[in-house]
Amino acid sequence: xxxxxxxxxxxxxxxxxxxxxxxxxxxxxxxxxxxxxxxxxxxxxxxxxxxxxxxxxxxxxxxxxxxxxxxxxxxxxxxxxxxxxxxxxxxxxxxxxxxxxxxxxxxxxxxxxxxxxxxxxxxxxxxxxxxxxxxxxxxxxxxxxxxxxxxxxxxxxxxxxxxxxxxxxxxxxxxxxxxxxxxxxxxxxxxxxxxxxxxxxxxxxxxxxxxxxxxxxxxxxxxxxxxxxxxxxxxxxxxxxxxxxxxxxxxxxxxxxxxxxxxxxxxxxxxxxxxxxxxxxxxxxxxxxxxxxxxxxxxxxxxxxxxxxxxxxxxxxxxxx
Length: 321
Fold this sequence. Notes:
Elements: E1 2-13, E2 25-34, E3 39-48, E4 54-63, E5 70-73, E6 92-100, E7 103-113, E8 119-128, E9 136-137, E10 152-162, E11 165-178, E12 185-196, E13 202-204, E14 217-227, E15 230-239, E16 252-258, E17 265-266, E18 286-293, E19 296-302, H1 304-307, E20 310-320
Antiparallel strand pairs: 1-20, 2-3, 3-4, 4-5, 6-7, 7-8, 8-9, 10-11, 11-12, 12-13, 14-15, 15-16, 16-17, 18-19, 19-20
């Protein structure tokens, strides 16, 4: 089975958007919600923190149903920053909306800087009652966070509801390591799975669900969509070290499939999409989001610089068996 995609190119250019006047860079981790007349794409962008770091903010842009024309831009933060000392004090780097009945759940990846390592994170829940223009926290703490065997870096949760059960696919850290010649500790993380009856209280499956393809592989941003009777997952993966400037170790997209949402078969060769030879996604592809719009299935993703310049899209042409 091979997925075949038609790249639409970079559909959102951060530097030519209205956000460029207020933010430093990035339209990171795009995630779509489809409305009858438009597609709303949420993403994370950055301001300076005053101490050499940055703070992450969630914004959105509305597109027509073809993803060709931008119709509206968010005028303010979609999610408020966390209070001092909270898990999301320094912002939300990933945002995953999930329409549910009359509201929209939003799963945030809140993060806070630390001294010995760059940051720690958890997954929070916000809810929108105004059609996704703004979201309010249900509390100041996370709904999914570190635990005995998942000790840090729980984040990038993406949820779907199947037969009344919430399934969340997320990442958790397995190690922070400092390597020879490096002045910083680097993180390793893998993909996990949790279940819930209400989207608030979660039970972790307690294992890595996508096998690693190489030693110290980092897996990130899983996104799952049912196509026919089978569930398809795209995610991104990279090496733990030397990934910022060595593009052989940088993010690329991985693929897996499942018939029951629990047992996954990894088959990166069937992903059907890879980095371009030149241009905005030639160095890396990362933070994918699968979604259906009418009869079409699209894949959003970031390119070079972890979404520094914007995001692009591809449309599923066919699924070959």
